Amino acid sequence: METRIGRIEQLRDGRPLRVRAGDRDVIVVRLGDQVRAFPAACPHYHGPLDEGVLHGDRLVCPWHQATFAARSGELLEPPSFFALPSYEVRVVEGHVYVDIAGDAPAQRTPPMAEPDLKQEPRTCMIVGAGAAAAAAAEAMRQAGFAGRVVMIGREDRPPYDRPNCSKDLLAGTMSASWMPLRSAKFYEKWGIERRWAVVDEVDVTARRIVLEGGDELTADIVLIATGGTPRQLPAPGGSLPGVFMLRGIDDCEAIVDAVQTARRAVVVGASFIGLEAAASLRHRGLEVTVAAPEPLPLVQVFGEAVGRRLRELHERHGVAFQLGRTVAVVEGNGRVAQVQLDDGTLLPADVVVVGIGVTPATESVRGVSTQKDGSLLVDEQLRLIGAQGIWAAGDVARFPAAHLNGEPVRIEHWRVALQHGRAAGRAMTGHAEPFAGVPFFWTQQYDMRLGFVGYGRPWDELILGGEPSRGDFVAFYAAGGRVHAAAGTRDRQLAAFAELMRAGRLPAADVLRSAPDTDLAGLLTAT
Fold this sequence. Notes:
Elements: E1 2-7, E2 17-21, E3 24-31, E4 34-39, E5 53-55, E6 58-60, E7 67-69, E8 75-77, E9 88-92, E10 95-99, E11 123-127, H1 131-142, E12 148-153, H2 168-171, H3 184-189, E13 192-196, E14 199-203, E15 208-211, E16 216-218, E17 221-224, E18 228-230, E19 243-245, H4 249-259, E20 264-268, H5 272-283, E21 287-292, H6 299-302, H7 304-316, E22 320-323, E23 327-331, E24 338-341, E25 346-348, E26 351-354, E27 358-360, E28 365-366, E29 376-377, E30 390-392, E31 397-401, E32 407-409, H8 414-428, E33 440-445, E34 448-454, E35 461-467, E36 472-479, E37 482-488, H9 491-502, H10 509-514, H11 520-525
Parallel strand pairs: 11-12, 11-17, 12-13, 14-28, 17-30, 19-26, 20-21, 20-26, 21-22, 29-31
Antiparallel strand pairs: 1-10, 2-3, 3-4, 5-6, 6-7, 7-8, 9-10, 14-15, 15-16, 18-27, 23-24, 24-25, 31-32, 33-34, 34-37, 35-36, 36-37
């Protein structure tokens, strides 16, 4: 059905326009004299693309910064795994018409190569089956790799949306059926093998993988994407029944089972995972206390103003805090009953959820030295330094940050793992480019979505626009007059910040200091 949606002069370069075409909402973008039309909702969680950023040929979703080519709809950056279908557009005497077929899809899978071992005899083994592994496997097929691709994971399920384990799945507002990134049939169709196994050893010199039980696998190409291992609670009683880590679906389901008969929960750690778990458990009606050594939640990351906002948000929803405190002992007779803090405070607890960070899961890697934190040092193309034919991605990789003059960093963000996976997948098939992705993280707590763009490193100046207490703000973090990160609730500002960082055009700290509410999206289109 063809619909006239207006005149071409109504379309502004640099800003998507949402219109109604037939029975659908679409966005129309103008690129010079060309006009393109796509679905209005991002394939990943249906974010409103008209509220995002159009920068050159890059269309960025405001919610989670999935990025698409504005001329073709092709997927450029995750967390979406789908591209945008492009609708037919005609411009006649200045009038713009959009034609959408009745069965036009709202998303599409990028083209993939079918496996053909006669054409490509090489084998790629991916150790891990999380975000980085899933993204890498698809990127290899999309880059034309027709060889064997095998993902080896500890969980007998397809890769899934792990961040929701502490959010909607734990809160009970999402079914586990929504969690898989792709169906099992998808992996079967494209010849991406999934093997459920525990890996005892990855010999990077021989490119040999030894499984629990003794089976040995060899490969021409290996990607290490084993993620992180949750830190255990370093206190007596920390392994009592009723004390839970929260890393995957199995952990989440165990907690959900436990809280059916529970009334009181203690969350240890005011990290992103801890705060999200606290919000989810409050949604289920439990009495929740958060215990953490910091004076305010995430104060070292976000600063006092944002830390206070997070504390007030949780307190308004009934969460109690014991801050500046550590756990001395977890007590119970066969099952957790209470938590004693270092000042003697006793917190009754039917359930304890521990969220105190992760360490790189590299204990099985042999033949190369790990860094002090257990991470693996890689080059700008995510190739493992000191080995041939080996790549590493996600939580385990310490990579040179393009926007920090090559400083090696390790980032535990789910979207970064997806970005790494896509980049490594292309590199492993000979389409190597220096990784230059901009890190982005988001957390959802109650009705507040808080985003963080850039690098969480020491800062000596915080520049604040808006007001955290009202839930409408953006904060910029700088060191030595150079801005390296931003956080806040203004989605479009954060998407524009990411694009400015990627393009090397971030304003200096003194510019933002004088005008912290500067329209960053406007800077993208400024000449």
